[in-house]
Amino acid sequence: MIDPVAAASVSRRHFLAGGGALIVSFSLLPRLLCAQENDRNADAEQAKGPLPGSLKDEPMLDSWIRIDADGSVIVFTGKAELGQGIKTAFIQVAAEELSVDFNRINLITADTQRTPNEGYTAGSHSMQDSGTAIMNAAAQVREILVGLAARRFDISADRLTVQNGEVRAEDGRRLGYGELVGGQQLHVRAQASSKLKDPRTHSIVGKPVERVDIPGKVTGGVSYVQDLRLPGMVHARVVRPPSPGARLAMMDTGAADKMPGVLKIIRDGNYIAVIAEREFQAVTAMRALATAASWEERPTLPAQDDIYSLIQRLPSQDTAILDTRTMLGAGTRTMEATYRRPYQMHGSIGPSCAVALFRDGALTVWTHSQGVYPLRKAIAEMLRLPAERVRCVHMEGSGCYGHNAADDAGADAALIANAFPGRPVRVQWMREEEHTSEPYGPAMITKARAALDGDGIVADWQYEVWSNTHSTRPGPAGYLASAQLLQTPFTPPPPTPIPQPEGGGDRNAIPLYKFRNARIVHHFVPSMPLRVSALRSLGAYMNIFSIESFVDELAKAAGADPVEIRLRHMEDPRARDVIRTAAERFGWAAYQPRKGRGRGFAFARYKNLGAYVAVAFEVEVEGESGRVSVARAMAAVDSGQAVNPDGIRNQIEGGILQSLSWSLYESVTFDSMRITSRDWSSYPILRFSAVPERIDVHVIDRPGQPFLGTGEAAQGPTAACLANAVADATGVRIRELPLTSKRVKAAIGV
Amino acid sequence: MALNDLEAPSHRSAFGALAAVLLGVAIFWAFGLQQALSADEPPSGSSFDPALVSKGAQLAAIGNCAACHTAPHGKPFAGGRALRTPFGTIYGTNITPDPDTGIGQWSQADFLRAMHDGVDRRGRHLYPAFPYDHFTRVTDEDVDAIYAFLMTRDLVRAETPRNELAFPLNIRATVGIWKLLYFRRGVFQPAPSENAQWNRGAYLAEGLAHCAACHTPRNFLGAEKKRLDFTGGESAGWHAPALNAASSAPSPWTADRLFAYLRQGMDDVHDAAAGPMAQVVHNLSQVPEEDVRAIALYVASLGGGQTPQRRASVSGVDTQAVERGAAIYAGACASCHDMGRQVLGGALELSLSTSVAMPAPGNLIRIIREGFVPADGEKGPWMPGFAGALTDRQLTDLVIYLRAHVGEKPAWDGVAGEVEKAARNKSRE
Amino acid sequence: MITLNVNGQPRQVDADPATPLLYVLRDHLELNGAKFGCGVGQCGACTVMVDGEAIFSCITPVSVLRDRQIKTIEGLGTIDNPGPLQRAFIEEQAAQCGYCIAGMIMRAQALLEKNPSASEAEIRETLSPNLCRCGTHMRILRAVGRAARAMQNTSTGNTKGSDP
Question: pTM for the complete prediction?
Answer without folding.
Answer: 0.91
